[in-house]
Design brief:
By secondary structure, the protein is an alpha/beta fold. It has five helices and seven strands. The chain starts with 10 loop residues before the first strand and ends with a strand.
Length: 166
């Protein structure tokens, strides 16, 4: 993010903590939309959210991510009971269905949204503590993110107009 003290540009900072397919969309959609609206955006990826910066993505939905969300199937909307998630293969099937729906509706993929974010000068910060804890290196990550810790986020957040925890 630019350190222009005299700037009147609105700033958005967010903490990204989840790394599943269904939880990857909100932070990237909000970040790219805010950047398109002229805001300076910083995303701090920590814990499971850090996996969204990996070069090799293998994203799946969380079958219990939101049991209240009914998916369009067979001409109606069907919710997934909690018990169903215990059946082997349900995660893979639910992920395949979600990926198919995303493609069918023409929604950008997470790699595409990451690229748009980087092209839009969205700052992406990889949490150093999480990198150390999960034994990742910057070689595991896409090009563009910087390393930072909690103090990095706090410094950014105190200068932001909007702070989100996703």
């Amino acid at each position: 993010m630019a350190n222009d003290v005299a700037s009147n540009t609105k700033k958005l900072s967010m903490i990204v903590t989840k790394g599943s397919l269904d939880w990857a969309y909100p932070p990237f959609i909000l970040a790219t939309t805010a950047a398109a609206m002229g805001l300076e955006v910083s995303m701090f990826f920590t814990f499971y959210g850090l996996t969204l910066l990996k070069k090799k993505l293998d994203l799946n939905v969380t079958t219990l991510g939101n049991p209240a969300m009914a998916m369009p199937m067979f001409g109606m909307h069907i919710g997934m009971p909690n018990l169903v998630s215990a059946i082997p293969g349900v995660d893979a099937a639910a992920s395949a269905m979600m990926k198919s729906l995303i493609k069918k509706k023409g929604i950008a993929s997470i790699p595409e949204l990451r690229d748009i974010a980087l092209e839009s000068d969205v700052e992406m910060v990889a949490c150093q503590m999480t990198m150390d804890m999960f034994e990742y290196t910057m070689d595991d990550m896409i090009e563009g993110p910087i390393l930072g810790g909690a103090a990095t986020f706090i410094e950014t957040a105190t200068k932001s107009d909007i702070n989100l925890f996703i």
